[in-house]
Design a protein that fits this description.
The structure holds 3 protein chains of 3 kinds.
Chain A (H helix, E strand, L loop, with lengths): L7 E5 L11 E7 L2 E8 L7 H6 L6 H6 L6 H16 L5 H30 L4 H21 L8 E2 L2 E2 L7 H23 L3 H7 L7 H6 L5 H5 L6 H4 L20 H25 L18 E9 L2 E9 L5 E7 L1 H5 L3 H5 L4 H11 L3 H5 L1
Antiparallel strand pairs in A: 1-2, 2-3, 4-5, 6-7, 7-8
Helix pairs in contact in A: 3-4, 4-5, 4-11, 4-14, 5-6, 6-11, 11-14
Chain B lengths: L1 H9 L4 H34 L15 H10 L11 H20 L15 H22 L3 H32 L4 H7 L4 H4 L1 H14 L11 H4 L9 H26 L10 H22 L5 H29 L5 H31 L1
Helix pairs in contact in B: 2-11, 2-12, 4-5, 4-11, 5-6, 6-9, 6-13, 9-13, 11-12, 13-14
Chain C lengths: L5 H12 L3 E4 L2 E4 L4 H10 L5 E10 L2 E10 L4 E10 L4 E3 L8 H12 L2 E3 L25 H6 L1
Parallel strand pairs in C: 2-5, 6-7
Antiparallel strand pairs in C: 1-2, 3-4, 4-5
The chains are: A alpha+beta, B mainly alpha, C alpha/beta.
Chain lengths: 367, 363, 149
């Protein structure tokens, strides 16, 4: 006997616990299996790129904070790098180190959030999430110590950073770095051999390396598929060529590999920060640049390895005080291209996990 | 109180008096346990998650559940325009009432029980399914796609896990020689958890699925289905569904206590105290699972029921039956270690076998 | 194969595609007619496999599209430029070569109104269907900002 069945359309989002912001997926389902996905964007579109055109170069720095609001410091970075390149501003060595330390701290905080909310999507009732937030809170306290802010730091400036470390920062940072690896081990003991977690993530949402490269994926999504491409190693910016660290990669490109890559990247970030503290040179934290800089006519592109992937900034200057065009290569947005490729044919429950393992920040997707 | 109630029971005219007293007691017991369980759950899970939990309303936040109830009762009662109004109204009641019916057969103390059915086990397994129908109807009635998926999952889960649960209860009935719950408790000179560890494991997993607790909370699945079957509910009706959820947990804990932990029996303390202590202990175990385990996927949960639990329950039934037929008077000192060994071996073997099968499936 | 800089690349491309390949510093400009074939050649023969970024700029008289393509093997980068006219701008889509071009081209279409021929699903992306105008064009007036100026 055959039963008459029909597909139905389910709107996941824009207000849904697992869409990590205001994002909507229009899903066509056959029972529990997803037949088609259509992402719907733009709920958080603020016209950042247009906004940049009507502000001076310096006024744009806090705007870049609002791109990916969970890793604000990393968002400043490509923008100031691009403007420095255009205006030929030399950054003091100490400032580069400060940027690296703060950027890597921010990366750990961002990955903690990513892994924690992935566990949430999997149905661990906030336990992992709360543990991750315990440590994220410590990082945010550290960042607050330097910048005075807790979410959007507005930290970088042309030719340096806004503030040097206060005297009590380095000891506090060292305490944190000493204790953080044991926390990471604690997470591993909680999650790494959990049978249900393994069966929920292994072999789910497999992304082949060819597809990952072809679809311009970057960050843990790309590295989870086994493509060893990290701008910190492969196109070193700032002072990343002075540090010794590894690029973790996955083998299968499934959700588990992406999760492992994020966990390992946190360990590598700790390594980088440790080396950076040791090498930290003395000097000024920034050079004086005019308030209204007028970079010469031209265009430039600079990119960094943000927690979610390659974050690029493309600036066109017409010689005035405002950028003529300012475009951000938002990694989360481009990683979303894969959504259909990854979700079609999966169960609804898996789709949520795959979506969580891509790790989005809607501020960056919609801009 | 014990002897007083038994003496009441002797005369037929006092049936209605006992009925009234027990009905009030059971409703009061379930309600107060639900409030206590909600508070315990929130506080204990908060401790698991390195935070404090509700601690503002009353001493230790004890009145939090009451405050929540008041809040929920004063909320606007929304009925979706496309909902099936009759079902939408009746479904929460259909879901809630069976839990009280089950409690009616539970012996809180020797003789302190509403009815001592001689087919108690049968009654429980029959009535517990009605509750699932209520949840299914509440999912369908709201005309929401999330709750529809939740409702489908509920039925799939009910059908799958009912069978191993009943099979594990069958082996219990064979061992204890009665279907009456009082008799089952009375037969547990040694708690069944020691005599039938395999049966306990099967029953525990199945009851978790029956009461929709992690890792089988697929029906609610807040990260996937926003709130599953009760997505469209609000106000009083939501309160009733919420109550159902926790009274199911109360019933689940009471069943585990009665069937496997020796019910009211225990030294020193009065029977009902032992009953409550054991109930809380089994609820704590459920909480522990809830705060650590991720959720299973629907097909994995079905696999577990049909390929994992069903064979284990059959093995358990077979071994218990064999023991009862051929060695009815075997000393506990021999039978318990042998049976524990058998259980561990069977579980390990079967888990390894399943994993092997899964690997070949995945690759 | 290894290509040192844009001069070498452009001379290499010229041997294959003839004229229409102009170098501006870090950027290689390609005429619209040859663009698709050049991109295909870059991807399949020269190993430029990672389409990092697509964006567009409104230069009042014409639009300019910028493509940044990276080669993982020899860590080389090429930045292509493509000029297209302001009235009815249509450029070839690269989405059949690179899956990752899909959303980025939709974004350019949404914000600039540049059409990509052969794109499988060219719709507005961050703005809603029926939105009037293309915000990142220079002639698009933002009410709240331009009223004060």
């Amino acid at each position: 006997m055959t039963l008459a069945t029909e597909q139905f359309i389910l709107n996941i989002g824009p207000l849904h616990p697992s869409t990590h912001g205001v994002f909507r997926m229009r899903v066509t389902m056959d029972g529990e299996t997803i037949q088609d996905v259509e992402p719907v964007f733009g709920y958080l579109h603020r016209g950042l790129e247009k906004l940049c055109e009507s502000h001076t170069y310096k006024q744009n720095i806090p705007i870049t904070d609002r791109l990916d609001y969970v890793s604000a410091i990393n968002n400043n970075w490509p923008y100031v790098m691009a403007v420095e390149k255009l205006a030929e501003i030399q950054v003091p060595l100490r400032a580069e180190y400060l940027r690296v330390i703060m950027g890597e701290l921010q990366r750990i905080a961002s990955h903690l959030l990513a892994v924690g909310s992935l566990m949430n999507d999997m149905g661990v009732f906030y336990t992992a999430f709360m543990y991750m937030f315990r440590e994220r809170e410590k990082i945010i306290d550290l960042l607050e110590m330097v910048t005075g802010q807790r979410l959007l730091y507005n930290y970088m400036r042309f030719g340096g950073v806004s503030m040097d470390f206060p005297a009590e920062f380095i000891p506090a940072l060292k305490r944190f770095l000493n204790i953080m690896p044991s926390y990471l081990d604690e997470y591993d003991s909680m999650m790494a051999d959990n049978e249900i977690l393994l069966s929920r993530t292994k072999g789910i949402g497999i992304l082949t390396p060819e597809m990952a490269v072809n679809s311009s994926a970057s960050g843990p999504l790309l590295r989870g598929s086994g493509v060893k491409w990290d701008l910190r190693k492969d196109a070193p910016y700032s002072v990343y060529d002075r540090f010794d660290f590894d690029i973790p990669t996955g083998n299968n490109g499934d959700c588990y590999d992406r999760y492992r890559v994020r966990m390992e990247e946190m360990r590598q970030s700790i390594r980088i920060i440790n080396q950076a503290i040791e090498q930290l040179p003395s000097g000024k934290e920034k050079v004086m640049v005019p308030l209204r800089i007028r970079p010469p006519k031209g265009e430039t592109y600079s990119q960094i390895e943000a927690p979610r992937g390659i974050l690029g900034c493309y600036i066109v200057s017409d010689g005035s005080t405002k950028p003529y065009r300012c475009h951000f290569r938002a990694p989360a947005f481009i990683n979303l291209t894969l959504l259909q490729e990854l979700l079609i044919g999966q169960k609804l429950a898996d789709a949520i996990i795959i979506f969580g393992s891509i790790d989005l920040s809607m501020g960056e997707v919609d801009r | 109180m014990n002897n007083w109630l038994i003496s009441l029971d002797n005369s037929v005219g006092n049936f209605w008096l006992q009925f009234l007293i027990m009905a009030v007691f059971i409703i009061a017991f379930v309600m107060s346990s639900v409030i206590m369980f909600i508070w315990t759950e929130r506080r204990v899970i908060a401790r698991f998650q390195a935070r404090l939990g509700p601690n503002r309303a009353g001493p230790f936040g004890l009145f939090q559940a009451i405050a929540d109830t008041v809040k929920i009762l004063t909320k606007e009662d929304i009925i979706p325009s496309l909902a099936d109004r009759v079902l939408f109204w009746t479904a929460p009641a259909i879901a809630f009432i069976p839990t009280l019916m089950i409690m009616a057969t539970i012996p809180f103390m020797n003789g302190f029980q509403m009815v001592d059915l001689n087919v108690g086990v049968l009654f429980i397994s029959a009535v517990s399914a009605i509750s699932a129908i209520g949840i299914f109807l509440s999912g369908v009635a709201g005309n929401n796609k999330y709750s529809l998926i939740g409702a489908m999952r509920e039925i799939a889960q009910l059908i799958s896990f009912e069978i191993p649960m009943v099979l594990s209860l069958a082996s219990l009935v064979i061992a204890c020689g009665s279907m009456s719950l009082t008799q089952i408790v009375a037969a547990q000179n040694v708690p069944n958890i020691i005599l039938q560890p395999l049966g306990f494991v099967v029953f525990m997993v199945a009851i978790l699925a029956e009461i929709n607790r992690t890792p089988f909370d697929l029906v609610e699945a807040d990260s996937e289905l926003t709130c599953g079957f009760n997505t469209e509910y609000s106000g009083m009706k939501f309160a009733l569904l919420y109550l159902t959820e926790y009274s199911e947990a109360v019933v689940g804990a009471a069943l585990i206590t009665t069937f496997f932990l020796g019910g009211w029996r225990g030294p020193f303390l009065p029977g009902i105290m032992w009953f409550v202590v054991k109930m809380i202990a089994s609820f704590m175990f459920i909480l522990w699972l809830r705060s650590t385990l991720p959720r299973l996927r629907i097909d994995q949960s079905m696999h577990l029921a049909w390929k994992g639990l069903l064979p284990l329950a059959l093995v358990n039934l077979f071994v218990i039956a064999l023991k009862n037929v051929f060695f009815p008077d075997l000393s506990l000192w021999i039978s318990v270690p042998v049976y524990i060994l058998v259980s561990v071996l069977v579980i390990l073997l079967w888990a390894g076998f399943l994993r092997k099968g899964r690997k070949s499936l995945v690759v | 194969m290894n290509i040192a800089d844009n001069q070498e690349l452009s001379s290499h491309l010229r041997t294959h595609f003839g004229e229409g390949i102009i170098v501006h510093g870090e950027y290689v400009e390609i005429t619209i007619g040859k663009f698709e074939r050049v991109a295909k050649y870059l991807k399949e023969s020269l190993g430029y496999e990672f389409l990092s970024m697509i964006t567009a700029i409104d230069y009042i008289d014409y639009f300019e599209l910028v493509y940044r393509i990276e080669a993982f093997q020899n860590k080389a980068t090429v930045q292509l430029k493509l000029k297209c006219e302001k009235v009815k701008p249509v450029v070839p889509s690269l989405s059949h070569l690179w899956y990752g071009a899909r959303l980025q081209e939709r974004e350019v279409y949404d914000l600039f109104g540049i059409e990509f021929s052969n794109h499988p699903n060219l719709k507005r992306i961050v703005l809603w269907e029926g939105f009037q105008g293309y915000p990142l064009r220079k002639d698009f007036k933002v009410k709240s900002y331009d009223a004060g100026n």
